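Hello,

Our lab assistant flagged a job as stuck in the queue for most of the afternoon. It eventually completed. Since we weren't sure the result was trustworthy after the delay, we are filing this so someone can double-check. Below is the sequence as submitted and the structure that was eventually returned. Let us know if re-running is recommended.
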Amino acid sequence: MSAQPEEAEKGGYAKIAFRVPNEDPVAGTVQIKVTLPEQHPLSSVRTKPVPGWTAQVEKAQIPPVMVDGAQVTEAVRSITWTAQPGTRIGPNEFNEFEATLGALPENADELMLPTTQTYDNGKVVEWNQPTPPGGEEPEHPSPVVKLIAAEAGGHSHGGTPSGSGGQEADQHGSADDTARYLGGTGLLVGGLGLGVGAGALLRGRRSGGDAS
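-- returned structure --
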């Protein structure tokens, strides 16, 4: 079990994919529950639809805390993906479950995301063991996202730049396309005008020749 990417920027928003392997030779995985840290409340969590699975986001009231410049009294505590009838992660298979999380804490260096994996035979595996620094990875390590200082410009890993830059780019692109179109049309009209003028001059010369 792992979280991808392995790192994200402090104070930003990141799209995290939980990669879930099925390690049972017979049973299939039918539920995944990710627990979010209570000491670092996340006010915004959005899940990406996964065919054959339903996602439920559980929120809870928390003591007022400032997050991303605003007072937050409610935070997401867990995300649960449950397989619909006839769907599962079978033996020797894996699946990925994506969610956008934020705002990520600025006063922490990592985000531990303990995850519970439930099989259709009733077996439950807790992926909640911390990996010691420089030590051997435990049997069921907790998914972890390392938090790094924000880069210059303020864009988050896996996030979308804020503002209307994309819209402005579209508008500039449309304006450029229009200018090129009008410029091409002007050249075409000018060319036609030259052609018409030359034709008229030629006809005039021919008429003068016939008259003489």
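-- support follow-up --
The delay was a queue issue, not a problem with the job. The result is valid. Confidence is low (pLDDT under 50) at residues 155-212. The longest strand covers residues 53-67.
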